[in-house]
Amino acid sequence: MSQSSLPSRRNMLFGAAAVSATALLTSCTSNENNDDPEPDTQAQVSDEKPGKQVTIGFAGPQADHGWLNAINDNARKRAGTYKDVKLEITEGSNDAAAQDGQIQTLIDKKVDVLVILPADGKAMTQAGLKAMQAGIPVINLDRIFDSPQAYRTWIGGDNYGMGLNAARYIGEALKDKANATVVELAGIDNLELTRQRTQGFDDGLKNYPNIKKVARQAAEFTVESGQRKMTDLLQAQPKFDALWNHDDDQGDGALQAIKQAGREGFLMVGGAGSKNAMDNIKADNSVLKATVLYPPTMAASAIDLARALGQGKGVGGLAEFEIPASLTLFSAVVDKTNVDQYMPTGFK
Predict the structure, then answer these.
(1) What CA–CA distance (Å, rounded) separates 150 from 144?
(2) Within its chain, how far is the Cα of 238 from the centroid?
(3) % of the chain with per-residue pLDDT over 90
(4) pLDDT (average), residues 118-146
(5) What CA–CA distance (Å, rounded) separates 115 from 124?
(6) Strand, helix or coil at 146?
């Protein structure tokens, strides 16, 4: 997930959620109106009339997390829907030097467009600049480069919006409860995304003066860290009314800790939109009642944008001839009322 400051949240909120964003982007032409495959049928070939052949290079970090693995899957599946797209995908690395070498290989292959989810946005800025200077437009995915000269378009999630919408959901659920308390299970504290999610959550809670955040623990986006840090929270806080967890992978561990402690009587809101989280929300047999999306379908949308760039098209539904400079996806809240709609976007 994003490791660098994202563009202002005043940027375009592109669609109501990942599903609608992907649906609009698929018709990446300002002159045609084509239906988009449903999220669970992305592997099917698009029935849109093929255009100019486009070779897209895709470079992402190592898929050592459920969300990152879903990023790669979404890119592959989306590319597979187009007869006029060839995808050159790298192995993926969390080492900036190794990823830089992979990107240089794609530049040397003279791909038409590059989609890059950098292992580290700041460290990989030069790689983006090299591609742009070589005449290869770059779609910067999620973790933003330090310089706008390093990319043609940025697309990613809204970390501040995740925290804000989590606070709103919890706030509405507890607005009639006097002296309500919440705790926060954050992500990795040295990441900008974690600070943004916490800031959004804190700002959202200001609209509910009856609710006070009484504790916060930072985990590491893993099941093990989630279980360990949630155990610490439970021991330190014998009673609270709600929990905001930044990441559904670490949320699996948090749920294990909650079950082992025999704790209930509070609601939990997760983050990112994993399949496990959505299954739990649908079953409605645990404290987990909602999750706030950070949609990995952004990778599918990045392929759509790359194809449009390679073919000189705009985006269907927009009047402009060019694709936008940045797209911020909306952090939709998924609960039992709409979980069936979003289930196809859940990642393992």
Answers:
(1) 9
(2) 33
(3) 79
(4) 96
(5) 13
(6) coil
Tell me the domain boundaries of the chain.
Answer: 18-156+296-328, 159-293
Specify burial of residue 88 (Cβ count, 10 A radius: 0-12, 13-18, 19+): middle
Give me the phi and psi of 268, to 5 degrees please.
-120, 135
Q: Tokens 């911020």 sit at which residue? A: 328
Separation of alpha carbons 317 and 319, rounded Å: 7
Residue type (1 letter), 208:
Y
What homologous superfamily does CATH list for 18-156+296-328?
Answer: Response regulator (3.40.50.2300)
Predicted TM-score (pTM) of this structure = 0.84
Rounded to whole angstroms, the Cα distance separating 107 from 129 reads 11
Two domains, one topology: 18-156+296-328 and 159-293: yes
In angstroms, rounded to a whole number, what is the distance separating the alpha carbons of residues 136 and 150? 11
339: CB partners within 8 A, 6+ apart: 278, 281, 282
Domain 159-293 homologous superfamily, CATH? Response regulator (3.40.50.2300)
Question: 323 Cβ partners below 8 Å, 6+ apart?
Answer: 28, 153, 305, 308, 309, 313, 314, 315
Spatial CB neighbours of 241, under 8 Å, sequence gap ≥ 6: 174, 177, 180, 181, 182, 211, 265, 266, 267
CB 258 within 8 A of CB 285: no
Q: What is the pLDDT of residues 61-78, one digit of tens each?
A: 888 888 999 999 999 999
Which DSSP string do the residues of 48-104 spell out, in sequence order?
SPP-S-EEEEEE-----SHHHHHHHHHHHHHHHT-TTEEEEE----S-HHHHHHHHH
What is the rounded distance in angstroms from the CA atom of residue 60 to the CA atom of residue 69?
Answer: 10
Number of H helices and E strands in the chain, helices first, is 11, 12
Q: What is the DSSP string of 10-23?
A: TS-B-SSSHHHHHH
